[in-house]
Write a structure and sequence with these properties.
The protein is mostly helical and 285 residues long. The chain has 14 helices and no strands.
């Protein structure tokens, strides 16, 4: 039987085309652009272009970190891609009498590896990317793209560092929990990750900063549904806990509605290298 995976695959060209489509992606044209992306990624899968799919996963994670307002949109795109590629694998398994002709890692596993790599980089040298990365991981958990078990190690690392007094790790945990808890089943996901018990252990430590303590205590309120602010003014709270502009909005964040693809997100595209855009235009012309 002819196997399309044996066809030649131009990885560099496909990556440029996919980059061009990602540049166009927004809420308004999501369905049409997502369909085109899935078609290209499916063709890459058939021809053994795993490196192209890996590049796509890396690009998605980077864009989610740099364009946080579209994090939920990118996570939903990952959900669509994961399901379609899994269905493609099943079709070829059936056509080949139940035997896979080639072993391909799932898109979810590729995405897990990508997130783990970026997580390690963020801990080491790119601390500014840690917070939005954890929010993106939260969106992926809510969409069912990342298995909870595959995220457990990352969460455990953050708890260990937070117990040692590292403020950034505590803030990252706060970001993740607040993101996930916005959905109806989010608290259940956090419980499976051991977040409630982990936060209580961190709060028992005397070395954590007031800011970290305040943010984690606010997360504890999410588990008990007791969102109470004891301060008479935001200024007093911010002064005591040394909160910056981002954390000043925690109360409104805790009460905010879930974010999904239907919400209004910016339509401006994220630029890729101009050279790549020119090449895509030439190819598609």
């Amino acid at each position: 039987m002819w196997n399309s995976w044996s066809s030649q695959h131009n990885s560099r060209l496909e990556q440029r085309r996919i980059c061009g489509l990602l540049n166009k992606l927004n809420v308004t044209n999501f369905d049409s652009v997502a369909t085109k992306l899935i078609e290209r990624l499916t063709n890459c899968r058939r021809r053994g272009g795993v490196e192209t799919i890996e590049a796509f996963a890396d690009s998605i994670a980077l864009r989610a970190v740099e364009d946080t307002q579209r994090s939920s949109l990118y996570a939903y795109l990952c959900r669509r891609v994961d399901r379609e590629l899994e269905m493609e694998d099943r079709r070829w398994t059936w056509l080949n009498d139940g035997t896979r002709q080639s072993s391909h890692p799932s898109f979810a596993s590729i995405l897990v590896d990508t997130c783990e790599s970026k997580f390690t980089q963020a801990l080491d040298v790119r601390a500014a990317q840690l917070f939005p990365l954890l929010e993106f991981i939260g969106d992926l958990l809510l969409d069912g793209v990342l298995p909870i078990a595959d995220v457990q190690d990352l969460v455990d690392q953050l708890f260990t560092l937070a117990e040692q007094g590292q403020e950034d790790s505590a803030i990252a945990l706060s970001r993740l929990c607040r993101r996930v808890a916005r959905e109806q089943d989010g608290v259940h996901i956090l419980e499976q990750l051991g977040a409630s018990g982990g936060i209580e252990r961190v709060l028992e430590e005397d070395i954590i900063t007031p800011k970290a303590r305040y943010l984690l205590m606010a997360v504890v309120d999410l588990f008990h549904q007791e969102l109470v602010d004891v301060f008479d003014s935001a200024g007093l709270r911010n002064e005591i806990y040394h909160l910056d502009n981002d954390e000043q909005e925690i109360s409104s964040d805790l009460d905010s509605a879930p974010t999904d693809v239907g919400e209004s997100l910016p339509s401006e595209t994220t630029a890729c290298e101009s050279e790549n855009q020119v090449e895509v235009s030439k190819v598609d012309a």
